[in-house]
Amino acid sequence: MGDRRHKRTLRFLFRFGGTGRAGPSDDGPSTGRVPAVLDRLRTTDRLPSSSGFWRSPVRGVRFTAVLGLVLLVGLTLVFVTGLLSYAAYNPDLAPVNDKTPGKGVLGFYLFAWPTGPHWLYRLTQGLHVTGGIVLVPVLLAKLWSVIPKLFALPPARSVGHALERVSLLLLVGGALFEFITGLLNIQLEYVFPGSFYPLHFYGAWVFLAGFVAHVGLKLPRAVRVLRSGELRGETDELASPAPHTPTISRRGAFAMVGAGSLLLLVTSVGRSFDALRSTALLTPRGVADPGTGPNGFQINKTAASVRITPADTGERWRLTVSGPAGDLAFTREQLLAMDQYSAALPIACVEGWSTANQWWRGVRLRDLAALAGYPDRPPGVFVESVQRSGPFRKAALRDNQVRDPRSLLALEVNGETLSPDHGYPARIIVPAAPGVLNTKWVTRLTFGEL
């Protein structure tokens, strides 16, 4: 509309010579009014609210529709796997596990996290983090493609348009917040005030509200555009009315976005595969060099980082097992004298990295539950560590996790005594559980109601 008004104004000015009368001016040459008006029109195009400000020939409804459908699939996968990650923490089991108190109805979907397959959390969290990283170029390209609409005036032309703008605000704001906080947490440089867990959890639901509303408003048109390849008489509000000379085609732009996503995939996915770990340049892999030997695999927190001293895990260390049978104390030697079992299980962390299966050996949790007074049907267990700082010093496990024969109080890994950084003298290892629930430096197990 603005461009048509500009053209009509110019035709009027040239027709009447800038004097307001038809025909030549009685006063001689033009007084300069036309150039002044042209300067004002050119100045208008310098504002982001003007369609003439955005002149990329790449922008267009079809370009945006393709990116939108990629994000529809990708962000849905990231959101669902994120919810699964939250459920894996058993936040409805015990307050100590719930890093998001007051979630109310937003926790409607929570369920008892299973122990099988043993690689379940490794898969879901790997997809969540890797998918989020890979989608960064697509998200940025999508935001770039629609940025003219963010500055469009008037802000709301109708009730429907106002709802669309609100959904766009929630979508863009929520997506940026989720991606930024997630990437900071992955890099172990999280700097936002408050805990990552509630901020990321609530932010995900804000994003979802905008996402669902925006998809409901835009998906039918996007599908129609992609099927027909044209707008069928509709105005392409994203295309520039006066585009610059193309320096890249839309196919080339798609190729650039795809190449960016591929580069991020190649430089991040290796954190979950031992053979590719050296290629994971953009994501953490525990410590920079986990060392070699049986204990040479990734670590998220070291004994020193949580202020554990040799005295805490030395000769005075005892494991206390509590239940109906009372408090029972065991030395490490006594635990080693019990029946020992082995299980091949990975470690998978919320930051998205994981290890290959490690061979763990120790006492089954269900055998310790029997000693505590639950010989037939072991209940859940409350686990406490000697670590003095950092989150998850305490954690609760469900009864199905205790009953699984692969759930161990591990004393050895890969045929060797646990190193201090891997939880010596004893640690929990449970199939399909997030790494932080595999508590290290365990000092007390309380079986029973949680």
Automatic annotation (TrEMBL):
Alphabetized CDD domains for the sequence: SO_family_Moco (cd00321)
Q: Which residues form the Oxidoreductase molybdopterin-binding domain?
A: 310-447
Q: Quote any Pfam family the record assigns.
A: Oxidored_molyb
Which Gene3D superfamilies does the entry link to? Oxidoreductase, molybdopterin-binding domain
Transmembrane domains' residue ranges: 63-89, 127-147, 168-187, 199-217
Q: Keywords, A to Z?
A: Membrane, Transmembrane, Transmembrane helix
What is the name of the protein in this document?
A: Molybdopterin-dependent oxidoreductase
User: What organism does the record attribute this protein to?
Assistant: Streptomyces yanii
